[in-house]
Amino acid sequence: MHLIGKLAAVVLMAASLGACATQSFYTTEALRRDDRHPRILMMPPDVELSELTAGGGLETNALWTQAGTANLTAAVKQTLMARNTQFVEFAPPKDDTPEGQRLEQIQKLHGTVGDTIRIFHTAEANRLPTKGGKFDWTLGPATQELAAYSDADYALFVWVRDSYTSPGRAALKAAALLLRVYVPGGIQYGHASLVDLKTGQVVWFNALHPREAGDLRTAEPAKDTVAMLLDNLPK
């Protein structure tokens, strides 16, 4: 989908869902316990920060994205440690290896599946008849490869897109306000998922609905975003 069209779609979806900031779904509220405490593999967050131009286009900013990724990663680690969660950070193989390329595809797959869940499950009217109303989503057996690198039971994925109003867009918003016309500014939205590495099943999903707030470029606002993303994370 074109970036502008996608931005419009998430804004419309937020309007249809009302004022709730997040929305969680589970297959279970308690993690599987065999002979040990559940171990979570913390995947590198998938983050992209952009500038919203006067014309409504999104221009990715590499420096913002780098800062946002670092801030979000630090905030996720702090949150997991505060919850006394047993976790290990994923140490990916080199990108130019077959293993690295396959694992990159798993990251992309999570983003795609998460988009699909937000569109076809968070809004009840959009739910797929084939699901019978159940929360039933999977990344498939490819996730078993992640377990081989980590000896983990679950993988935690975090995906966030954030945009910021450019000076030109801000001027347009001010002019439109005089005409009593609403022109949206930058928005933040995303999701977090917990995936069973044995089955690939998404056992928990939390959608952060689009909001004109938050700033991942600095540490404290990033902590607020993570607090919402990891709210209700199963133990």
Explained architecture:
The structure is a single chain. The protein is α/β, with parallel strands linked by helices. It has one domain (3-229). It has six helices and eight strands. It has helices at residues 3-17, 62-82, 98-120, 144-150, 167-178, 219-229; strands at 22-26, 40-42, 46-52, 58-60, 87-89, 154-165, 188-196, 202-211. Strands 1, 2, 3, 4, 5, 6, 7 and 8 form an eight-stranded mixed sheet that branches. A hairpin with a 5-residue loop joins strand 7 (188-196) and strand 8. Helix 2 (62-82) crosses helix 6 (219-229). The relative contact order is 0.23.
Number of strands: 8
Number of domains: 1
Radius of gyration: 18 Å
Question: What is the overall pLDDT average?
Answer: 85
Return residue spans where pLDDT drops below 50 for at least 5 consecutive residues: 1-18
Going by helix content, strand content and strand pairing, the class is: alpha/beta
Tell me the fraction of residues in β-strands, as a range. 15-25%
* Cα distance spanning the termini: 36 Å
Overall geometry? globular
The helix-strand sequence is HEEEEHEHHEHEEH
The helix fraction, in percent, is 25-40%
SS summary, helix count: 6
Give the biggest sheet. 8 strands, mixed
What's the layout of helices and strands?
Elements: H1 3-17, E1 22-26, E2 40-42, E3 46-52, E4 58-60, H2 62-82, E5 87-89, H3 98-120, H4 144-150, E6 154-165, H5 167-178, E7 188-196, E8 202-211, H6 219-229
Parallel strand pairs: 2-5, 2-6, 3-6
Antiparallel strand pairs: 1-8, 3-4, 6-7, 7-8
Task: Provide keyphrases for this structure.
235 residues; alpha/beta; 6 helices; 38% helix; 22% strand; globular; disordered N terminus
